[in-house]
Design a protein that fits this description.
This protein is of the alpha/beta class. It contains 11 helices and 5 strands. Helix 8 packs across helix 11. It is globular and about 55 Å long.
Length: 230
């Protein structure tokens, strides 16, 4: 079986779960964790968004567990695509990326819960069961943070400018921080070079950055900070 072929495991009864993560060891760990639950089972898995969407459309799982960093399209874009399916699966994000920045974006995209990969193992099963019951799963600290926004508290320091970026702009900003040139970003996202350059211009304006050099420096600084706190 090639690495691009999703692994399909038969699930006769119980909740059917599909895994989307580009790290085989993470999928193996998740599969083992979930299969220990009598009422939960893995019906398939994929490492990239294209094959994930294709197989999820075919298998119609109850729950999809997805990382935000995938080969090709981002997990965030996959979550948006899943909203076009009938029925729409429950979606749980399991990611290394900071929930304080990404969780709200994933909820707006259609996810039902967010778990950091560094969280306790039991949190994954707890989150699966909670979203299956029709609820939203967030950590206590993030739930409190979101609640504060609704009662009028101000944004956290340093949060306001970054929060103005669209999901696609954040994706491009991260690629810049990783050292990718615009032509390579265009190739990875299947966009034209001109489109990526337009996005870069918007990011500079929103973050009040003077030029492309300043954009690169800020993107690298932000990405390194994100990695340190992962």
């Amino acid at each position: 079986m090639s690495k691009d072929t999703p692994l399909i495991l038969p699930v006769q009864t119980g909740t059917r779960i599909f895994l989307v993560d580009d790290h085989p060891l993470v999928r193996e760990w998740l599969g083992s964790l979930i299969e220990r639950q009598a009422d939960l089972g893995i019906c398939g898995q994929a490492e990239d968004s294209a094959s994930a969407f294709r197989e999820i459309s075919r298998l119609k799982p109850d729950v999809v567990i997805v990382d935000l960093s995938l080969q090709g399209e981002s997990g965030l874009e996959l979550i948006k695509q899943l909203q076009t399916l009938h029925p729409v699966p429950r979606v749980l994000v399991l990611s290394m990326h900071d929930e304080a920045f990404y969780a709200e974006r994933t909820l707006r995209a259609g996810a039902h819960g967010y778990v950091m990969k560094r969280a306790a193992t039991g949190k994954v099963i707890e989150a699966i069961r909670k979203i299956l019951s029709g609820q939203i799963y967030l950590s206590e600290s993030l739930a409190a943070r979101i609640a504060q926004k609704f009662i009028g508290s101000s944004a956290q320091p340093g949060e306001s400018l970054m929060s103005t970026l669209s999901d696609r702009e954040v994706e491009i900003f991260r690629f810049i921080g990783q050292g990718y040139e615009t032509k390579h970003i265009a190739e990875k996202l299947h966009l034209s070079l001109k489109t990526v350059q337009t996005y870069c211009g918007r990011i500079k304006d929103k973050l009040a950055l003077a030029n492309a050099t300043a954009l690169t420096h800020e993107a690298v600084r932000w990405y390194e900070h994100e990695q340190r706190n992962a």
